[in-house]
Amino acid sequence: MRVCWAAYGDLGQPTGGYVYDRLVVAGLRARGDDVTLADLAGEPSRLPAAADGGAFDAVVGDALCVRELGPIFEGTSRGVARVLLVHHLTSWEVEHTDDVLLRAVEARAIAASDRLVVTGDATGARLAAEHPGRAIDVILPGADRLVRLPHAPDDRGRARLVFIGSLIARKRVPLLLDAIEEASDPRLALTLVGDADRDPEHAAAVRARVEASRVLRAAVRFAGIADEAALSRVLSESDALVLPSSLEGYGMVLTEALHAGVPVFVSRPTAIAAGLVGSPAAVVCDDAKGLAALLRRFAGDGAMRAALRAAAEAAVWPRWSDTVRMFGEALGRARAAVAQETRGPVVAGPG
Partner of 262 for a Cys bridge, out of 126, 218, 257, 298, CB 3.0 to 4.6 A? Predict the structure, then answer.
């Protein structure tokens, strides 16, 4: 199948959404599909031609580029399947204030799509409620991207926490810092792994918050962006991952941590998105004060830490080979549906 995959910039960017795009594209190519990348940040009004000069069978657009995708999908040649990949809609983020305009742009791209692919059940359910009648496939990310290294115990008796994600408002790192300061337990150590350049002003405020607190200066370390080898290592040296986001389409880093045998502390909206409510390897929190109490207990309760780790190590999660297979099947369904529409109804001849 000839596929055009549209996104902003390089798929090597270190976010969950780009990791999903990159690994699915690589998997489709490995199975024989011809996938052409379209950088909508460079020339947003046009798609490149297929490698053989013919038409694409399908165009996949990452909803991160939703402003460009409505017009592009509307102008796509008849017979080309248009698939919108939704990690989550930006208008759902409580940190955004231009919801009315943004929702109109999103609705245009959704209406121009032949099929929606979402990366989590909660995202699919919300889209189905807000845009009824759309064809939606839920295709979960794999959890087996990183090498699973043996757990490295800490010889200093610390409870080592890690946050992995961009330093942006939606991830709510300040809430995590409030919890660490509220707990004020010298056994708690936090490593922040992630990109500080996506929202430099917010990242600077996070750093200033740490510098202003004696407790946080002692507990928090900034590690910057980590490649896959470094992420495997940091997970092996962590006792829990903490993700207090206000919204996640799925929260791929959670299942990657659990696949590595690392339990997770997670905000309730994110736990719901990832299907982790009730998981014995996940601790759900609602606010900084509640998280502080949970982390204080975690630091001092060896049995709790052991039980959570055992539950994480026992869990089974989707594999990227499954994700790629299901995405290919979704593209096939989209292409078949468009081909049927293009042929139109069959009219019986006389007699």
Answer: 257
